[in-house]
Specification:
This protein has 442 residues and is α/β, with parallel strands linked by helices. The chain has 2 domains: 281 residues, Aminopeptidase; 121 residues, Glucose Oxidase, domain 1 (3-Layer(bba) Sandwich), CATH 3.50.30. 37% of the residues lie in helices and 22% in strands. It has 12 helices and 15 strands. The chain has an 8-stranded mixed β-sheet with strand order 1-9-11-10-12-15-13-14, sandwiched between helices. The longest helix is centred in the first third of the chain and has 32 residues. The protein is elongated. It starts with 13 loop residues before the first helix and ends in an 11-residue tail after the last helix. The structure holds zinc ion. Zinc ion binds next to helix 8.
Length: 442
């Protein structure tokens, strides 16, 4: 699901975080200042509010929409929010501040996991450097050696037909698993392997076992001419594979009203994004929607039945929600009547809600398609469903900017519509007797 490999920044130092929190304070004041006159003008057009004045003022739909839009902008402005990078420290500080301003106790829950990282890998031949992609589970290394073309697809016989001892081998992708080509290359004495894509562009490959030599993927456009040249000429190549596992520290933002230790409902969405994408729809949209619901519930009884979580590490494999579920314990999870997850809700008009059948049956929402949970397990609700918690997944479907640098814009009205749909079903959810679980709780 990665769009590219580039060098990633290191985790920021505490002084950096302090400067950051200071700068966010200024930013927050700026936003509040902008929103104020608009609040008042909207207020003037509304019927007499039933709720106390300041609450109603804060919660008019237009104001909620503007604030959700500002939240998305603030997150997108940080650039790609890749787990374990300074952008995530900034994003988590922003969310903490917003939840606290809304009256919640908000904290960071940290967790760690191991992640493959390509810090920039390439091959240089005769003064020309071609950027490639390190395969997952490659060895790191920088060998300089003869470049030898291997015929066909790189089975054992193919390697026997080329003398790759002490050389960097270059072979086409296809037919055999990557790991087998690598094993054959290493067995034949190669000190590195280049795999040339058999279709346009490059690929992100994973080896099924650790490689003993560095392995680099090249696009067909760059690799095929090099492969053909190495069949005609004697070439020397310098291979640089700068990659390996890194321990990532993730940061979930967890918010609840003071004293609320056992919620009946947990609302969540991930706030990390993939490398190269600022993640407006995936998933600043869901993050802002959950925050918007929190703002609306902070002074209501429902607010005392609910926890809110912005998950980190989703794009690397649902790490944040898994860590939350593991830390929560069986008693906490058993008390949950539902976990509502919001992912990619800022683009496409139709709202798709899927979930545990018992829960999907309970909720009636106009203008939304409600379906049992199918194969849509690629987001954080899956971690809760696996622990026996009934789940609902709010989603608006695939869109062209998914995981791309162009994922920069959402329609804020869709966020407020999503939030209102969830708010409508919360009273039904909380008053229901059944916890709806399948019985296979942890
Ligand atoms: Zn997502």
């Amino acid at each position: 699901m990665k769009t590219s490999h580039t060098t990633q920044g290191a985790i920021g130092s505490p002084p950096f975080l302090k400067r950051l929190i200071a700068s966010l304070g200024v930013l927050s004041l700026g936003l509040a200042g902008c929103a104020q006159p608009r609040d008042l003008s909207v207020q003037a057009q509304q019927p007499v509010p039933v709720q106390p004045q300041p609450q109603a003022e804060r919660n008019s739909l237009a104001t909620l929409r503007d604030r959700a839009s500002a939240d998305v902008d603030a997150l997108v402005k940080l650039g790609p929010r890749v787990a374990g990078t300074p952008a995530m420290e900034q994003a988590s500080a922003y969310l903490l501040e917003e939840y606290r301003k809304a009256g919640y106790v908000a904290d960071i829950q940290t967790f760690t996991y191991s992640k493959f990282e390509d810090r920039g890998s390439s091959v240089s031949v005769g003064g020309t450097t071609l950027q490639g992609r390190a395969l997952r589970r490659t060895a790191a290394g920088t060998p300089t050696a003869r470049l030898v073309a291997v015929p066909n697809v790189g089975d054992r016989d193919d390697f026997a037909a080329a003398n790759v001892k002490g050389a960097i081998a270059i072979v086409r992708r296809g037919t055999l698993p990557f790991a087998e080509k690598v094993r054959n290359a290493a067995a034949a004495g190669a000190v590195g392997l280049l795999i040339v894509n058999n279709e346009s562009g490059n690929f992100s490959g994973t080896l099924t076992q650790d490689a003993s030599i560095p392995v680099l993927a090249l696009s067909r456009e760059q690799g095929q001419p090099l492969l053909e040249r190495s069949q005609r000429e004697r070439l020397t190549a310098k291979l640089t594979v700068n990659a390996g596992q890194r321990t990532v520290t993730g940061r979930n933002v967890v918010a609840h009203l003071p004293g609320v230790t056992q919620p009946q409902v947990l609302l969540g969405g991930h706030y990390d994004s993939v490398l190269g994408s600022p993640g407006a729809n995936d998933n600043a949209s869901g993050t802002a929607t959950v925050l918007s619901i929190a703002r609306q519930l902070s002074t209501t009884p429902l607010g005392r039945q609910t926890w809110f979580v912005a998950f980190d590490g989703e794009e690397d494999g649902l790490h944040g929600s898994k860590a939350f579920v593991n830390a929560a314990g069986p008693q906490f999870l058993k008390g949950l009547k539902g976990m509502l997850n919001f992912d990619m809700v800022g683009v496409n008009n139709s709202l798709l809600i899927s979930g545990t059948p018992s829960l999907a049956k309970q909720v009636q929402i106009e203008n939304a398609k409600i379906a049992p949970l199918g194969s849509d397990y690629g987001s954080d609700h899956a971690s809760f469903a696996a622990a026996g918690v009934p789940v609902l997944f709010f989603y608006r479907g695939m869109e062209p900017n998914y995981h791309k640098p162009s994922d920069r814009q959402i329609n804020p009205t869709l966020l407020t519509e999503t939030a209102q749909a969830a708010l409508k079903m919360l009273p039904q959810l909380v008053s229901s007797n059944a916890t709806g679980g399948s019985g296979n709780r942890q």
